[in-house]
Amino acid sequence: MKAIIVPGVTDLNKGDQALVWESHRLVNDTGLYNEIFILNSGDTEEERKLLCQQSADHGYQMIENILQHPRRGKHNVNEHIQESKLELLKQIGNAGGDFLSTKLLIEVCNNLSLVRKLFSKKVYNTVKHFAECDAVFVKGGGFIHSYGERTAPYLMWYFLFYVRLAQKLGKKVVFLPNSYGPFKGLTVENQVSAVFNKMDLIYARENVSAESLGTLLNKKIPVEMDLGFFLQTGDVIKAERLLEKYNFKESDKIVGITIRPWRFPGFSNPNELYAKYIDSVVAASKHIISLGYKIALCNQSLGPNAHEDDRNAIKDLLKKFDHPDMIWIDENLSCKDLKAVYSKFHFFIGTRFHSIIFSLTSFVPSIAIGYGGNKAKGIMGDFSLNDFVVQIQDVQPEGLVQMFDQAIASYDNIKQQLKDSMTLVDESRSRLIHDIQSLYA
């Protein structure tokens, strides 16, 4: 049998990379499928290399992604907080054309000879793969949400395109543990309901999302671990050598930090909120260093666009505060190797959600700065760490400093709590495998 994992892999974002790799490992461990493919991504040859090369080097089989991003691989590095109106208009034009094209494709996808006549060879080959597969798995993550943006109707179509294609072709579809909601915006609730009511298996990765989607669908949504919890740690010796390269000593108590650009969708003052967010991390950094810790700034995501490139936020931070004990580990590591680095830290403050998961599963006490829906709030709550999560629009300099002090005061208790919680990981993974196997019982 044959399985396909969607959407496309993004090697520059180490959280997404981990989710695709762990989706593949999970599907493989069911023992059901002798062929497993992942979608590539990237709208230009250069972008495809950046987004797929590490996965290719690890031996994953890929098929072509056929729905381009409206941005078409063009990224203005100066627009990592707010895009220009001209750029947005271009993307709206591209999205309109893509919607009409993909809507037609879904209508005719069961007739491969017609697909060959109406669409390119690349589109035909990918649709043929879908027609020949037995199941489509949507990787874990957190992309089924919208905030009432004008672009929300197309965003939801874009996110759910491959699910619609698989369902029209009569394939089994499994939505691996994700975060869901909010569902604000024209047609969003209707689109989500229409697609998810036909799903074979659906999982949420935390209770907040299970309730959000369950309320919309009027059904109970099972909760299982985010697939990032299953990621195996890379080479720890290699991680130690990397830290030595950046002049960290074994005796140093290192506080890892990830930050990111964020456009604050749904808010009218994104530049003001972003400045407050950076100022809050600056205040916490000064406080942390004053207590004798060293800080490691880490690249959890390097693209593909300016908004997803953490290096832009790190540069903004360093303009406001630079110190010899705050060191930028400026590397493009795989998700496994990055987790190995995090495992050597004493504490972690993470905006990037999977940087928090990598640190928590390494038993490193952490503070989460949440963004993009319910994911951070939900998972920290599920681990009884509600006191150590703040939403990015709500973060304040004094509040982040106080949260750090509170976490350090509870350090040993948090560490033990994490160790106790990790016993649930293997059980969750086993349930997922059993449920997938049961589809064919």
What does this structure look like?
It is a single chain. This protein has 441 residues and is an alpha/beta fold. Helix content is 49%, strand content 15%. Strands 1, 2, 3, 4, 5, 6 and 7 form a seven-stranded parallel sheet that branches. It has a six-stranded parallel sheet with strand order 10-9-8-11-12-13, with helices on both faces. Helix 9 (236-245) crosses helix 12 (335-342).
Task: Give a quick set of tags describing it.
7-stranded parallel sheet; 6-stranded parallel sheet; 441 residues; alpha/beta; 49% helix
* Helical residue percent band: 40-55%
Rounded to an integer, what's the Rg over CA atoms? 21 Å
Beta-strand content bin: 15-25%
Major beta sheet, specifics?
A: 7 strands, parallel
Separate helix tally: 17
Summarize this structure briefly.
The chain is of the alpha/beta class. It is 49% helix and 15% strand.
Describe the SSE topology.
Blueprint: E1 2-6, H1 14-29, E2 35-39, H2 45-57, E3 61-63, H3 85-108, H4 112-118, H5 121-132, E4 135-138, E5 141-147, H6 152-168, E6 172-184, H7 188-196, E7 201-204, H8 207-217, H9 236-245, E8 254-258, H10 270-290, E9 294-298, H11 310-320, E10 326-329, H12 335-342, E11 347-350, H13 353-360, E12 366-370, H14 375-382, E13 389-391, H15 397-409, H16 411-421, H17 423-438
Parallel strand pairs: 1-2, 1-4, 2-3, 4-6, 5-6, 6-7, 8-9, 8-11, 9-10, 11-12, 12-13
Helix pairs in contact: 3-6, 6-7, 9-12, 10-11, 10-15
